[in-house]
Amino acid sequence: MAGKSGLSYKARRRWSLVVLLVGLPLYIIVATTLAGLLNLQSVLLELVLYGVLGIVWILPFKSLFRGIGQADPDAPKDE
């Protein structure tokens, strides 16, 4: 069963790898550029900003990453 995302397990694994290897570094560049443009004077505000941005990036990909660390549910069972 493919789950709620509509993608097979192998497709979700591949897309999650693409997100982690390509999307996350791009997001980090955008987040640090944004923090630099805001020119926050308080270290505490900057820490809060990075904390929020560190959580926000995963929300659209939550269903993609769900269950990726588990065994393939579509694989044949060895008995």
Structure notes:
InterPro entries: DUF2842. It comes from Parasedimentitalea psychrophila. Pfam families: DUF2842 (PF11003). Keywords: Membrane, Transmembrane, Transmembrane helix. By secondary structure, this protein is mainly alpha-helical. It has one domain (9-65). It has helices at residues 9-38, 43-56, 62-65. The longest helix has 30 residues, at 9-38. It is elongated.
Structural class: mainly alpha
Q: Which parts are unreliable, with pLDDT below 50 for 5 consecutive residues or more?
A: none
**Helical stretch tally:** 3
Helical content class: 55-70%
Distance between the termini: 20 Å
Average pLDDT number? 87
The profile of the biggest β sheet is: none
What's the domain count? 1
In terms of DSSP E residues, the strand content is under 5%
Tally the beta strands.
Answer: 0
Give the CA-based shape: elongated
Instruction: Compute the CA-based radius of gyration.
Output: 17 Å
Q: How would you spell out the order of helices and strands?
A: HHH
Protein name: DUF2842 domain-containing protein
Pfam families: DUF2842
Keywords: Membrane, Transmembrane, Transmembrane helix
InterPro entries: DUF2842
Question: Can you give me a brief rundown of this structure?
Answer:
It is built from three helices and no strands. By secondary structure, the chain is mainly alpha-helical.
Task: Describe the structure using short key phrases.
about 80 residues, mainly alpha, 3 helices, about 0% strand, elongated
Question: Topology of this protein?
Answer:
Elements: H1 9-38, H2 43-56, H3 62-65
